[in-house]
From TrEMBL:
Family of the protein in this entry: Belongs to the ornithine cyclodeaminase/mu-crystallin family.
Source organism superkingdom: Eukaryota
Coiled-coil ranges per UniProt: none
Gene3D superfamilies noted in UniProt: NAD(P)-binding Rossmann-like Domain, ornithine cyclodeaminase, domain 1
Any Pfam family matching the protein: OCD_Mu_crystall
Protein name according to UniProt: Ornithine cyclodeaminase
InterPro entries: NAD(P)-bd_dom_sf (IPR036291), ODC_Mu_crystall (IPR003462), ODC_N (IPR023401)
GO cellular component: cytoplasm
Length: 338
């Protein structure tokens, strides 16, 4: 028996070959499976609640999951990924950046489903891997974006490096950085202007206090919340959450997970019938391709929000897609084992 081992470089080569459309379609199928319920006698997926193990300096998170079959973005339309069901290990891959990529793909899907058409300005809070993948994927998907603002606690090496990367890959986009620590705000006028003019706002921080007030956000803006995964974390205030609820535009990846983990929703007292799972909004054609409404209008009133805490099925799907694509490209090293 052979075990495929994929290095970080192998995974990077594979993921560069995935288009934004293919990635969001993959996540659309994941969310559709998650929202469709399951046959108790023959379940096609299983994703228990995440396991958390605290350590001295960090929190280790484990998200086991199983999914039986899913259209694959790595090959022909008819190709379907079929995770190894025998229990034997098929491949080992460096997944350091895959969580951020699958989150970005889900967020892109939300933008195309309920966000503004032809967004022109994006503001991102944070400068880590999540923000990097979100910016790269959205800028690839929306050439209409002309300004990009990165907001970080400080304009450190990580923020500067990310800004330089955006400038290099997207020279037509005016990219800038703002240093702003929410515990001691120092750039309020510049930050307020950036948020007010934003078409898209990406939040990927571990903040325990809102990053900006609801009053700064213009109607029609789409907000993606990726950072919080504990009840004590809050990237936006309750007023902004309620604005989305009023328009029936508060999307989540998993209703159960978000209502038990997302601090912003818990603090705002959000009920289950006030959120919409993103998987409830997707539809597909006969070839399992995602169908987006070409006549959809940009939201005029209120705001739209997508809150994601991440689900294990996303990891299974993106890992399977990477493995299948790597096999097709002849990448990785095969190790024989008994």
């Amino acid at each position: 028996m052979s075990l495929l081992c994929l290095s970080g470089a192998d995974v990077a080569r594979v993921t560069l070959d995935f288009s934004p459309a293919a990635l969001q379609t993959l996540m659309a199928h994941v969310f559709s499976v998650l929202s469709s319920g399951d046959n108790a006698e023959n379940p096609t997926s299983y994703t228990p609640h995440r396991i958390t193990i605290p350590t001295q300096n960090h929190m280790a998170l484990f998200m086991p999951a199983r999914i039986a079959s899913l259209p694959c973005c790595a090959g022909p339309r008819s190709n379907r990924m079929r995770p190894h069901e025998s229990g034997a290990v098929k491949a080992i891959l460096n997944a350091a950046n895959l969580t951020a990529l699958r989150n970005a793909a889900g967020s892109l899907l939300s933008t195309n489903l309920v966000g503004p058409r032809g967004p022109t300005s994006i503001v991102a809070f944070g400068a880590g891997a999540q923000v990097k993948e979100h910016l790269l994927l959205h800028l690839r998907a929306f050439p209409s974006i002309r300004t990009c603002t990165i907001v970080n606690r400080a304009i450190n090496d990580r923020a500067s490096t990310l800004a330089d990367l955006i400038r290099t890959r997207f020279p037509a986009v005016q990219t800038s950085c703002i240093a702003n620590d929410v515990t001691a705000p120092s750039a309020e006028p510049a930050l307020k202007d950036a948020v007010l003019s934003a078409s898209l706002i990406i939040c990927a921080t571990s903040s325990i206090v809102p990053l900006f007030p609801s009053s700064w956000v213009a109607d029609g803006t789409h907000i993606v919340l990726i950072g919080s995964y504990k009840p004590t974390m809050h990237e936006i205030d309750g007023a902004l959450v309620r604005r989305a609820i009023q328009q029936r535009q508060l999307l989540v990846d998993s209703r159960a997970a978000c209502l038990s983990e997302a601090g912003e929703l818990i603090a705002a007292g959000v009920a289950g019938d006030e959120v919409i799972e993103i998987g409830e909004l997707v539809s597909f054609d006969a070839d399992s391709e995602l169908v987006l409404d070409p006549a959809r209008q940009s939201p005029q009133a209120g705001v739209t929000i997508f809150k994601s805490v991440g689900v294990g099925l996303q990891d299974v799907a993106i890992a399977c897609a990477v493995v299948q694509k790597a096999e097709h490209m002849g990448l990785g090293r095969h190790v024989d084992w008994a």
